[in-house]
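User: I'll paste a sequence; please echo it back and then give the predicted structure.

Assistant: Echoing your sequence first, then the prediction.
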Amino acid sequence: MHAMRPILYIIASLMLAPPVLAQEIRDVPARQLPLPEAASPELRALIQTGSMATWNDHPATADDWKSWIAQGAEKASAGLPALREKMGVTVEASKIAGVNVFTIVPKEVSPENRDRVLIHFHGGGYVLNPGEAGTGEAIMMAGLGHVRVISVDYRMPPDFPYPAAMDDALAVYRGVLATNDASRIGVFGTSTGGAMTLALVLRAKAEGLPLPGAIAAGTPWADLEKIGDSYFSNDSVDNVLVRYEGWLGDAAKLYAGNHDMKDPYLSPIYGDYRGFPPTILVTGTRDLFLSNTVRVHRKLREAGAVADLVVFEGLSHAQYLFSPDMHEAKEYFRELEGFFNAHLTR
């Protein structure tokens, strides 16, 4: 019994000792990342090409931004004719509620989708992919999912900062609601488009509108500020966005202007997710927005919403959109097709 006293004394002393302050910043040693074995050959090849050449561009003036955006749009548009043919779709430009849209219709709409429609918001940091340049994801969704898609060409900076994009999103949603039951409407998008999908539901809730039957937010830009673990842990690991300190951070400031970036319609992570429709979220282990996606998923689950989370091994930001033949791309659209089919009313 007496032999136990020193041990008990040590334990009690440790319990009463002042707490050791946690290290706020952790230094991580330089390391090398091998190619992920579970990634597809196409994704492994993408990883080997290195970082996107434009990630650290910093347009200084409105004219600089417009020139930079136009160069990106020209490149994005160049492959669209071949993509439309490969996916077997037609694309028609029109307006809904005064907003430019592109309606994409596959040669064959599946029977379960005949009374359904998907609304699409393109990605690009609220600055890239104006006009037809933003329709790539919508074309692939229409062709692979055999469903009609309306892709919204929302207004963007430098001429139209926040809230122009969200005003356009809500206007189109109202217009589609006028002729379609909400339970048969799906909304989706990647990156900026994923964030706009979430913010649209928040705005529709606030205005008392019927909510879409289901939504898909691919790697959403849910927090415009550099908040979230993967903004740091995947810094220079993501070979698409690479770092927040590139054009991405500049675009956040350009879009938000003088508005608080924690406004839920700018950074939907700060919104109220109670009553949200079924939601599927997609990201990758090397994605700079991995934490954005995970944080949204947790908020949805905590709010009691149906929420699926798909994480691809080795994938950087939105790389599932880089080629329709890549395994990860086929899986992405298969996941969305199955999710919408399960949750939208027939």
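Residues 6-15 have pLDDT under 50 and may be disordered. The longest helix spans residues 62-78.
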